[in-house]
Amino acid sequence: MVEFAARLMRKLRVIQARPSTGVPLFRLWNVGVKERFYPILRLESLNRIRDNSCMARKIRPSRQLTGLYHAREARHMSRSELVRLSGVSKQQLSRLEGGQIRLRLDHLKPFAKHLGYTPEQMLLWGRYPGTGEGESSEARDEPLRRVPELDTRADPGGGAKREVRKDGRHADPIKHEGWVFPASFVREQLHTSPERLLVIEANGDSMAPTVALGDRVIVDTGHKTPAPDGLYAIRDAFEGIVVKRLQVMRSAKQTHVKIISDNPKQGSEEVPLSELEVVGKVVCCLKLS
C-alpha cells in the first residue's frame, strides 16, 4: 500500500508540474490504472496542437498565369482553336500559359498574328500599354485598322496604277476604300485578327441563295486548310478568287475536294487536294441589299 501511494504521488507531481489539464486532482484517486495516464497523454496532444497553430504554415505558391493566357482570354478564343491556328501542341500551350516554361519572345511569335498582340505585349502583360486590367474600355473597343476589299471588277489590263494585296505569287487589286469593324466584333464573333481579314464581293449567282450577287463575304486568309467543310474563297482556273462550298472526300489513295455551288443550276466538280488553292475561310456574309 505504501509503495502504491508513493508511485501515485510521483504521478501527481508529474501532472502538477505541467500546465493544468482541466481534470480535478481528487478524481485521480478514483480512476482506474489506465485512466491515470490519460490526462498526461491528452495534455501532450494539446500542447502539440497548440504549438502547430503558432507556427507559420508554409503555403506552396501557385503558378501565375502568363500573358499568353490573358491574351487568349481577351480574344475569347478557346485553347483548341489557338492550337489549330498556331500549330503548337496543346500540351506545350498549356505549359506556356501556366508558367511551367519561362516565356521568351520566340515562344510567343507563333501566337502573335492569331491573337492580335505583339510578343512584347504578351511577355510584359499588364505592364505594356494596351494590356491588362488597366486597359480602358475605349482602348479595347477602338476600331480596327482598315480591312481591304478585293476589287473583283478591276481590269487586269488597265494601265492605271492600283493598290494590290500580295498573296504568294499573286498580286490581287484592292479598292481604295476599305472596311472598319469594331474590335469586339472581330474578337468575339470572327475569332481572328484584323491582319488576316479580306472582304470579297460576290459577282455571280453560283452560290445563291446563300451568297447573292452584290453580297460581301469576310474571309479569314489565315485559314487555308479546307477543314471543316464549309464556304471558302479559292482560286479558279483563271487565277480569280471565287467563293465555293468545299467538301473533303477522303479516300485510301488520294484526298479529293468536292467544289460545290449552292445554286442547284450550277454543277460541282472534284479536284485533288494538292491542286486546290485556298485563299481563306468565309467567316461572315454581309447582306447589303
Task: Give a brief description.
The protein has helices spanning 2-17, 38-54, 67-74, 79-86, 90-98, 105-115, 119-123, 137-140, 183-190; strands at residues 164-167, 170-173, 197-201, 216-220, 230-235, 241-249, 256-260, 269-272, 278-286. The chain is an alpha+beta fold. The chain has three domains: 2-54, no CATH class; 67-140, lambda repressor-like DNA-binding domains (434 Repressor (Amino-terminal Domain)); 164-286, Umud Fragment, subunit A, CATH 2.10.109.10.
Annotation keywords:
single chain; 289 residues; alpha+beta; 434 Repressor (Amino-terminal Domain); Umud Fragment, subunit A; 7-stranded antiparallel β-sheet; two-stranded antiparallel ribbon; 9 helices; 18% strand; elongated
Could you characterize what this model shows?
- There is one protein chain.
- With 289 residues, the chain is of the alpha+beta class.
- Strand 5 and strand 6 form a beta hairpin.
- The protein is elongated, with a radius of gyration of 36 Å.
- About 19% of the residues have low confidence.
